[in-house]
Structure formats: structure tokens, C-alpha cells
Amino acid sequence: MNDDRPLQNTADNHDPPLEKDFSNGYGHGNLNNNNFTMGAEDSNGGALNRIRTAGSISMSPELFEKLYLSPENRVKGDLRKTFGNPTPIALIGFLLSLTPLSCDLMGWRGAGGNGASDSAAYFFFGGVLMILGSIGEWIVGNTFPFVVFGTFGAFWLTFGGTLVPSFNAYGAYVTTPAQMAGQDGNPGNPLGLQTPGFNASFAFFLLFMGLVCFIFLICSLRTNVVFFLIFLSLIGAFGCLAGAYWNLALAYENAANTMAAKRAGRLVVAGGAFTFVTSMAGWWIFFAIMLASLDFPFSIPVGDLSHIIKGASEKQKVKDAV
Predict the structure, then answer these.
(1) How far out from the chain centre does Cα 173 lie?
(2) Shortest CA distance to 300 belongs to which of 85, 63, 133, 61?
(3) pTM of the full predicted structure?
(4) DSSP letters along 112-125, please?
């Protein structure tokens, strides 16, 4: 006899929300298990809905934080089951821009030029992929990664644009007739890179990027250790690079100030070392997310912090329960 009763889910009503991504051992659905029955008289729509439910996977708060780099939150609708996880695409855009730049800043194998050779990568990997990832995080309701990826997507577009001569970011600082000779109608006079005004001004942009990273650092205390390390090292990187540009401004203002030029060189290398640490932490978390997304039989730890520092809503629930 066919059982025409509605589908009864044996899972606890308080389980984490069903997600599209995979986890190891968290409520795997299977069409052959006993969690539901499908009668012969079920409509096609009802059967399809049950298959979709069986193909969804319950996710622990720890896995949610690893996949989305944000504490688990409740959002309306099923967008997380409809769309793919946007976090990895934003991360790979960030990493394929930052990792080569860190090597350039440290001068490995003769690299240099503050990463000017990778200007296109800053636009198409750092800018485009991170903005797309940011929009994806916004769609699925993850505010923190949405803001982080959007901020760094805009950073890479800004950094890449500064290096492009047609933006005239540094050429605008060339004001003396001798320096402007032969450059009429040609934006992006390279002599602008050697002006105190440009270097001192660009340093402020890097300084306040460090301030943004400090705010992100505090917020990341509710995510994981690796994400926290990324922002911690970025604060050091932006601080060193801002100091390098201020010292370059001093050196270009007074050619006899050789100490400022040497300090600038050391600070650039230190900034590259900090960003290299950032990159390695980023590759680790990217690998962890990809393994979890594909339901690999093993995983690598990221040091979940979401269960250590409880959210205000969780603390309120505890108070209400007392």
C-alpha cells in the first residue's frame, strides 16, 4: 500500500540550514535511505522536490565558517542552495595578484618595479574576480566577506590604475617646465614617480588601507585563525609600504638624504615579506575551502574561532534560557 503522507524529515528541526556545499559526515541525504518514502502516485513536482531535499546537505557551523569565512547566519530563501559558493573565486583573484607582487617587492630573482609588470592581473584577477565574489557574497547574505572582497577588489583596481600611465596619477605631479619638456600631450610622465608630492600622497592611501585591515582584524576574531593571520600580516604590510613611500618622498626632496632612501628599500622588502605571509595563509584557506566544497575524505584545519567568541544573539539566548 502506498504511503501518501507528506514527507517526514527525521532530522532535528534545530539542525543547521540545508546548504549546497558538502561536508564530511553532516547529515548526508541519500535516495536509498529511510528518511522518507516516495509513493507511486506522487506528482512529478513533488518527487522532484523530494530529490532536491535529499540532495541537500546539512552543514555544521564550523564548516559554514570555513566555506564562507563568516559565522553562520540565517537568511531568507534558498539562495545558498541555488548558487555556488562565491568565496573561492574571490580568494583566487586576491592570491594571484598578491603572491607575485610580494615576490616583486622582495626583489626575488631580479624582480622589481613595485609589481608594474602585473598591472593587468590587478585588473582582471584582483579587481574583476574579487568584485564578482563580493557580489556573490551579497546575494547569498554574507555581509562580512561581501565587504572584505569588495574593499580589496576596489583596492586592486585602484593600485592597477595608479600604475597605468593614462590615468596620469603620478604625471600630474610633474609641474616644472624642464620636466614637462617633450611630454606634451603624453599623460603619465614617469618623472612623477620621483616627486615628493606623489610618494607622500600615495602613502596615505596605504595607511588607511591598514586602518581598514585593523577593523577587519577585529571582526575576523569570529571567523578563524588563518583569516585573522591574513589581516594581521596585511596591517604590517600596509604600514611598511606607507613608511617606504614617505621615506622615498624625503629622499626625492633632498638627494643627499641617503638614509631615507635606504630605509625605503628595507621597508619595501619588509612589506613584501608581510604580504608573502598573507599569501601563504590565503593559499592555505583556499585549499581548505576547495577540499570542503568537494566533500574530500580529509580536510585541513583553519582554526575555527566562531565557537570561542560567541555572538551577541547567542549570548542573549543563553540569558533568556536562564
Answers:
(1) 33
(2) 63
(3) 0.74
(4) -GGGGGGHHHIIII
